[in-house]
From TrEMBL:
Residue span(s) of domain Peptidase S9 prolyl oligopeptidase catalytic: 492-701
Family classification: Belongs to the peptidase S9A family.
Segments forming a coiled coil: none
Reaction it catalyzes: Hydrolysis of Pro-|-Xaa >> Ala-|-Xaa in oligopeptides
Name under which the protein is recorded: prolyl oligopeptidase
Class in the EC hierarchy, top level: hydrolase
Keyword Nucleotide-binding (UniProt): no
Alphabetical GO biological process terms: proteolysis
One of the record's GO molecular function terms: oligopeptidase activity
Length: 711
């Protein structure tokens, strides 16, 4: 049951709010006049409970009323930020430290090497080609030339087995929709082929073409309409898209996604089916027989094919009866679970990935939120530990079965990303390319602490700051986390974080429940009815930092994006007095309607759905939008983007409008709506720097902290 009609629309009216708490002469109050956002009489009834949704009209991303509201809100936000005296200096310093060359690890396409490079401030990284590691590089593909403002991004590239062709996917303005093109790798000329409406797709070569995943062209808004009936197609090079062969679909289950991949030798097509963000079925088609073999036909656990050993057997990572994952061998002639052979067992540490290269298995683990790497034989016999440069995060080790060397990146909070070449036979690493960032790591330190959450659970947290920092409760602190979807937050270097640190700030990153740092059990402890554990862990992190005199409530900012935006929204509505500043970015903030837009339905396995009464009651308890009360809230800058078709901006629009209406305190409530941008992937460098400058400026000003903006 629903009642909905528009009452009035007055986007030009304003409410006034003066930031009176800033009484220091260096931080005079900045007056804010919010637009009076019109309301509608919209009421949903969930299992007998009436829930008002007065800002429902903001869900229409194509309406002129929504467009006008966005312009007015951005005008207010820009007006406030422009009055912060050190905003331009913050942007200048961020630009300075960002301006250094950044490289990806090299990878092979046929007999050529490829790598990405960003000269420093290029909006998009450029793909280079060279005949050998010592050869002269040449530009292979420059995404910066695809648009004048850097808002078209290269999202994926895949080379044919012989390396003669490259298929690549691009996205416009941060959207999840991809267009796929094909290039001749030798001449660097585009072929006439083009593919539209691809989404959540790989590019998997086999024979004279490749497999990809797509939806039908949306009938409504491309950026908010529900995504249904995902399909796998095969595109033969030279054919128009309307001749592509439909390979896999499930017309009886519109809310299933299908991802296609192939083994290195192209002998097996692998279709991974999912109903959400965890748990998948697995179907494999040997090229010899041309018939799909059902390896897993349910969605209870996660299964990931590493590669094939021969024409009958594959290696697969699974968490079935293995909460920290194990590696098994599966014979496709007898694929039943009872016939799986354990190769590497479940241990106390999380097995995160396995690569087949140089006749060995390179196995990555996560140990207390840090990387650990080992080498094994194909039969599961451990060969050696791989010595990493320090405690931090190693990414990469990708290669082909006959490669004798692979590359990996190593980084930590104060260890810039260096690239290493790993000799598989000798089990030795050598520095291949060092970072050129102008940063003195010796001035900073990182510690890992284990604090106690509300229910007594020990939660790890990294704390980074200048050496010799005084623990007097006055340090500006940026507390960041995610807490969901089995995602692990490991140490990584960020130029933006360095600007915060060099100004006397603290960066804190807790590995809260809901993430994947400690395997399936840690993830499940933050899912569905356990979601409050995630918020409790984050709140306890803030309390720990205050109790230990790192900071105070007046100097504590919290931040997170996407599911992390939900985290911030929930914590600031549950404990508004604990935090001075809040940055919920591209957040899932309406927990009752998230599943009605684009791919939102896939998150029901993580959150539960309001369509079911037991989940509605739980979601309603913590949904940030529905728990805003008439009280005082932290200084808040909601962050979203007009082309976000992952977490549609309506979440942020409605949350900001409600917060502006009900905030009883003097702290400002702003919403920063980026144009021609999406959920975050592929965002141009210029937009990233501008956003970070606004975030830091807003935080420091409301903390009444004056940055020095020097090393």
């Amino acid at each position: 049951m629903k009642k909905y009609f528009l009452l009035f629309c007055l986007p030009a009216l304003f409410l006034s709010c003066e930031n009176k708490q800033n009484t220091n002469d260096k931080f005079p109050p900045i007056e804010v006049k919010y637009p009076v956002t019109s309301k509608v009489d919209s009421v949903d009834v969930y299992h007998g409970v009436e829930v008002k949704d007065p800002y429902r009209w903001l869900e229409d991303d194509r309406s002129t009323e929504t467009e006008a509201w966005v312009k007015e809100e951005n005008k207010v936000t820009e007006g406030y930020l422009s009055k912060i005296p050190f905003r331009d200096q913050v942007k200048k310093r961020l630009t300075e430290i960002w301006n250094y060359p950044k490289f990806s690890s090299p990878f092979k396409g046929g007999d050529k090497y490829y790598y990405f490079k960003n000269d420093g401030l290029q909006n998009q990284s450029v793909l280079y080609q060279q005949s050998s590691l010592e050869g002269e590089p040449s530009v292979f593909l420059d995404p910066n030339k695809l648009s004048s403002d850097g808002t078209i991004a290269l999202m994926n590239i895949s080379f044919s087995k012989d390396g003669k062709l490259a298929a690549y996917a691009v996205a416009k303005s941060g959207s999840d929709w991809n267009d796929i093109y094909i290039m001749d790798a030798e001449s660097k000329q585009l072929l006439p082929d083009s593919i539209n409406w691809a989404k959540f797709t790989g590019i998997a070569w086999q024979g004279e073409g490749f497999y990809y995943s797509r939806y039908d062209k949306p009938e409504g808004s491309a950026y908010s309409s529900k995504n249904e009936f995902h399909k796998v197609y095969y595109h033969k090079i030279g054919d128009p898209q309307d001749k592509d062969e439909l390979i896999y679909e499930d017309a009886d289950h519109p809310l299933r996604n299908f991802y296609a991949s192939t083994t290195e030798d192209e002998e097996f097509l692998i279709v991974t089916a999912s109903e959400g963000t965890s748990g998948n079925a697995l179907f494999i088609k040997p090229r010899m027989t041309g018939e799909f073999v059902s390896v897993v036909d349910n969605f209870k656990n996660d299964h990931n094919v590493v590669g094939n050993l021969n024409e009958e057997e594959i290696l697969m990572i699974t968490n079935l009866d293995a909460p920290n994952n194990k590696l098994v061998r599966v014979n496709l002639k007898k694929p039943e679970e009872s016939n799986w052979v354990e190769v590497i067992p479940n241990t106390d540490e999380l097995l995160s990935s396995v690569t087949m290269a140089g006749g060995k298995l390179i196995v990555k683990y996560i140990s207390d939120a840090k990387s650990k790497v080992q080498q094994f034989d194909y039969d599961g016999t451990k060969v050696a530990d791989v010595q990493l440069p320090d405690l931090g995060t190693a990414s990469g080790f990708y290669g082909k079965k006959d490669d004798n060397e692979v590359f990996y990146k190593f980084t930590s909070f104060t260890f810039p990303s260096n690239i290493y070449k790993y000799d598989i036979k000798e089990n030795t690493s050598s520095l291949f390319r060092a970072s050129e960032v102008d940063f003195d790591a010796s001035k900073y330190e990182t510690k890992q602490v284990f604090y106690e959450s509300k229910d007594g659970t020990k939660v790890p947290m990294f704390i980074v700051h200048k050496k010799g920092l005084k623990l007097d409760g006055t340090n500006p602190t940026y507390l960041y986390a995610y807490g969901g979807f089995d995602i692990s937050l490991l140490p990584r270097f960020s130029a933006a974080t360095i600007v915060w640190l060099e100004n006397g700030g603290i960066y804190a990153q807790p590995n809260i429940r809901g993430g994947g740092e400690y395997g399936q059990a840690w993830h499940e402890a933050g899912m569905k009815h356990n979601k409050q554990n995630v918020f409790d862990d984050f709140i306890a992190a803030g309390e720990y930092l205050i109790d230990q005199k790192y900071t105070s409530s007046e100097r504590l900012a919290i931040a997170g994006g996407s599911n992390g935006g939900l985290l911030v929204g929930a914590c600031m509505t549950q404990r508004p007095e604990l935090f001075k500043v809040a940055f919920p970015a591209v957040g899932v903030l309406d927990m009752l309607r998230y599943h009605k837009f684009t791919i939102g339905w896939a998150w029901a396995v993580e959150y539960g759905s309001s369509d079911e009464e037991e989940h509605f009651q739980n979601l309603f308890k913590y949904s940030p939008l529905h728990n805003i009360k008439n009280t005082s809230y932290p200084a808040t800058m909601v962050i979203t983007a007009d082309h976000d078709d992952r977490v549609v901006p309506a979440h942020s629009f409605k949350f900001a409008a409600t917060l502006q209406e009900k905030n009883q305190g003097s702290n400002p409530v702003l919403i920063r709506i980026e144009t021609k941008a999406g959920h975050g992937a592929g965002k141009p460098t210029s937009k990233i720097i501008e956003e970070k400058a606004d975030v830091y400026s807003f935080a420091w000003y409301n903390m009444m902290f004056e940055p020095k903006l020097q090393k």
